[in-house]
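Support request from a user on the community tier.

User writes: "When I paste my structure tokens into the form, the page sometimes reloads and wipes my input. The last time it worked, I copied everything first. Here is what I submitted, just in case something in the input itself triggers the reload:"
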């Protein structure tokens, strides 16, 4: 069983940046793809970004393209979500998720993932 732990959330002003981390409790026995999702208050959880094993392929929600960057640090078993130019609409609990994957595959549907973290709160407010 792989446990995922998110960190890096917080309260920031509009226009600020945050970097979220998703650390795996142990190195997996197979290659994995990772995704970030978010859920705002009273909203359904939505896809934000995804990355294939090693980071050769990535995919983003349209509203975060050019502002968010997902990346791997394989040696640290950690995936990062760099979030720039944050706005109040980005306020949500952010979750990372993982599943086995090969090659440059990534996944954008929640049901495709079988490991989830507990979430980290991001609040953007002046």
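"...and here is what came back when it finally went through:"
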């Amino acid at each position: 069983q792989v446990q995922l732990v998110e960190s890096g959330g917080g309260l920031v002003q509009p226009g600020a940046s945050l970097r979220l981390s998703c650390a795996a409790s142990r190195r997996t026995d197979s290659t994995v793809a990772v995704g970030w999702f978010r859920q705002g208050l009273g909203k359904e959880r939505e896809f934000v970004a995804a990355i294939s094993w090693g980071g050769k392929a990535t995919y983003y929600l349209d509203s975060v393209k050019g502002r968010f960057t997902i990346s791997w640090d394989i040696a640290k078993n950690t995936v990062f979500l760099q979030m720039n130019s944050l706005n109040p609409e980005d306020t949500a609990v952010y979750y990372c998720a993982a599943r086995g994957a090969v090659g440059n595959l990534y996944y954008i549907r929640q049901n495709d993932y079988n490991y989830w973290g507990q979430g980290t709160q991001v609040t953007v407010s002046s």
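Agent notes: The reload is a front-end session timeout and is unrelated to the input. The two ends are 40 Å apart (CA to CA). The mean pLDDT is 94. Escalated to web team.
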